[in-house]
Amino acid sequence: MKTLKSYKHVIWFDETLIDHCVEQAFDPDYWHAQNKVLGSAEGRGTTWFVQTDILPAALRHYKRGGLFGKLIKDHYWFIQWHKTRSFEEFQLLQHLVKAGVNVPKPIAARAVKRTLCYQADILTQKIEGAQDLVTILQSRTLEPEVYQSIGVQIRQLHDANVNHTDLNIHNILLDRDNKVWLIDFDKCYRERSEMEINQVGWKKSNLDRLLRSFYKEKRKVSIKWGEHRDWEMLLSGYNKNL
Ligand SMILES: Nc1ncnc2c1ncn2[C@@H]1O[C@H](COP(=O)(O)OP(=O)(O)O)[C@@H](O)[C@H]1O
Ligand SMILES: [Mg+2]
């Protein structure tokens, strides 16, 4: 990882994944002007998909959710550069890539100081041809093996000691080969030690949240999800090598 620092901003980047223009890479207008916008997706804000010289990428500006987010949309309290949302997600993704979990490779992250606050952005590898589980399950059911592979990925995430505090089915993608990808690691973190007694607690609460998300989307948009049967398959993947 390389770092570019000025008095107002810091950029962290992987020099093997972005070789120039890293300072402009966080500006959607830069990509628009060059005709290199591939598309976009709506979440809390807009994620822009852009074609860098090396790989297709997803550009996200950090935005708050909830009521507080309506007032202070994209400013976060500054403590230190290494405690910014973008740096923390960049590092976590690097850790997960090393651990062999299917997550987008982090390309670059930026934090910009605004008086007492900061704003943040991140550029990650775009998962080509991927859709999130909510979208997919609205049109088709999934094979038991796919549920198993979702369980396997979550298990790998947990074996890497990472707590995904927003593990819902919007944040699980499948590509054209049904390969499972986990995304959206804002505010997620590494649990301190594998020796801690609270190991079971956080892992279980990730899984509980995911289960609630399946039920929620079933009510909301009638996803084609087979409740117990499909959940058991997912858990069988999660518990595979026990
Ligand atoms: N690296 C990526 N590759 C492909 N699609 C992505 C990627 N990152 C985000 N997306 C798409 O953008 C949506 C929103 O991104 P996400 O990181 O979940 O942010 P948020 O939920 O905070 O808005 C996702 O549901 C997904 O459809
Ligand atoms: Mg999300």
Automatic annotation (TrEMBL):
Membrane topology: Peripheral membrane protein
Active site positions, chain numbering: 166
InterPro entries reported for this sequence: KDO_kinase, Kinase-like_dom_sf
GO molecular function list: ATP binding; kinase activity; phosphotransferase activity, alcohol group as acceptor
GO cellular component, one term: plasma membrane
Pfam families named among the record's database cross-references: Kdo (PF06293)
Gene3D superfamilies, alphabetized: Transferase(Phosphotransferase) domain 1
Enzyme class: transferase
Predominant localisation class: membrane
Pathway: Bacterial outer membrane biogenesis; LPS core biosynthesis
One Gene Ontology term from the biological process aspect of the record: lipopolysaccharide core region biosynthetic process
UniProt entry keywords in alphabetical sequence: ATP-binding, Cell inner membrane, Cell membrane, Kinase, Lipopolysaccharide biosynthesis, Membrane, Nucleotide-binding, Transferase
Chemical reaction(s) catalysed: an alpha-Kdo-(2->6)-lipid IVA + ATP = a 4-O-phospho-alpha-Kdo-(2->6)-lipid IVA + ADP + H(+)
EC identifiers of the protein: 2.7.1.166
Domain of life of the native organism: Bacteria
UniProt subcellular location: Cell inner membrane
Stated family: Belongs to the protein kinase superfamily. KdkA/RfaP family.
UniProt function note: Catalyzes the ATP-dependent phosphorylation of the 3-deoxy-D-manno-octulosonic acid (Kdo) residue in Kdo-lipid IV(A) at the 4-OH position.
NCBIfam families assigned: PRK01723.1
UniProt protein name: 3-deoxy-D-manno-octulosonic acid kinase
Organism from which the protein derives: Vibrio casei
Name of the gene this protein is made from: kdkA
